[in-house]
Amino acid sequence: MSKKLSVKHLLGIKELCLDDIELIFETADTFKELINRPIKKVPSLRDITIANVFFENSTRTRLSFELAEKRLSADVLNFSASSSSVNKGETLIDTVNNILAMKVDMVVMRHPSAGAAKFLSQHINASVINAGDGTHEHPTQALLDAFSLREKFNSFKDLKVAIVGDILHSRVALSNIFCLQKLGAHVMVCGPSTLIPKYIKELNVEVSHNLEETLNWCDAANMLRIQLERQDVQYFPSIREYSSRFGLTQKKLDALKKEIVVLHPGPINRGVEISSDVADGKNSVILSQVENGVAIRMAAIYLLATGK
User: Fold this and answer.
1) What is the pLDDT, as a whole number, of residue 188?
2) Which residues are within 8 A (CB) of 113 and not within 5 positions of it... i.e. 6 or more apart?
3) How do residues 212-237 score in pLDDT, each as one tens digit?
4) Mean pLDDT, to the nearest integer, of 110-125?
5) Does 138 qualify as catalytic in the annotation?
6) Which of 62, 71, 136, 138 is catalytic?
7) Would you state the pLDDT for residue 234?
8) How far apart are CA 295 and CA 69, in angstroms?
9) What is the pLDDT of residue 106?
10) ∠ CA(112), CA(117), CA(122), 5° rounding?
11) β partners of residue 49
């Protein structure tokens, strides 16, 4: 296996090959061991400057990236578009060129428009990590989700993973589908028909509108939140009805004849897509996902920064 990524940027899972994903996982194994030691910092990227450029609010992802960068001893610039010249009409390229003029080596960007990270990568010399672009992709989330499953199951061969909820508006769902399929897992999406995109069957995934049937099929369920901020029309009658049909409760888990692993990319709408007792219960790996997020992002940053 090559010890270098085949890509200069991390724009989406679609651009990665299986060797890339496995190299990121191997590197994350090392970093996870490191961040559980008393001294959690390494001098690996002491000469690297990274700009976190967020055109959308995202406390968890931004903090995870920032912590990963600091654990690697990189210099970190944080840029929030909501309090910047973007509000005065400055373009994406102008904003980032100004940041690059400060001699930045890498840009981690979240943007509300699909394709923004790719567009940026074509116009600047620095490496770009996509921290979420519209409803398109969120590659590091898919990698940390799969890494968390790898810890539980060791192998993806014949593993059945369900992605439940707002598939239509979710960049997490698309990246997870690409990642899990490359690793050899089977994927089913589940949700109201109005929240399942028409193109989904072209991606070779199974589709269900019944949560109980889905839970009986899968080994692990990734519960997505309803993205009300991306919805301009009403896709289901009420939150209460959605929760009744597609919310994961302990009662639904207890009705199964097996144990399944429960994931959630966060932030959690407790009592909507997942009940508190499930989120905090023995089936849940949600806190492991948070810890693994730092290790995976350290791995991606390190491999891109040292692979040039």
Assistant:
1) 98
2) 133, 134
3) 999 999 999 999 988 654 444 466 66
4) 91
5) yes
6) 138
7) 63
8) 10
9) 96
10) 140
11) 75
Confirm whether 186 is a catalytic residue.
no
Distances in whole angstroms, Cα of residue 78 to Cα of each of 67, 69, 112, 250, 300: 12, 11, 18, 40, 18
Residue 162: Cβ within 10 Å count: 25
Furthest C-alpha separation in the chain: 59
Domains assigned to the chain:
13-137+290-306 (3.40.50.1370), 139-287 (3.40.50.1370)
Choose between 1 and 279: higher pLDDT.
279
157 neighbors 149 (Cβ within 8 angstroms): no
User: pLDDT (tens digit, 9 = 90+) per residue, 170-191?
Assistant: 999 999 999 999 999 999 999 9
Instruction: Determine the average pLDDT of the residues in 55-83.
Output: 90
Average pLDDT over every residue of 44-72 = 94
Catalytic choice (9, 32, 62, 110)? 110
DSSP string, 130-166: EEEETTTB-HHHHHHHHHHHHHHHS--TT-EEEEES-
Q: Is 61 assigned a catalytic role?
A: yes
Catalytic residue flag (residue 110): yes
**Angle at CA of residue 148, ends 190 and 174, nearest 5°:** 40
Residue type, 229: E
For range 82-93, the mean pLDDT: 62
Using alpha carbons only, give the angle 264, 266, 272 rounded to the nearest 5 degrees.
Answer: 75
CA distances from 89 to 82, 97, 134 (A): 12, 15, 20
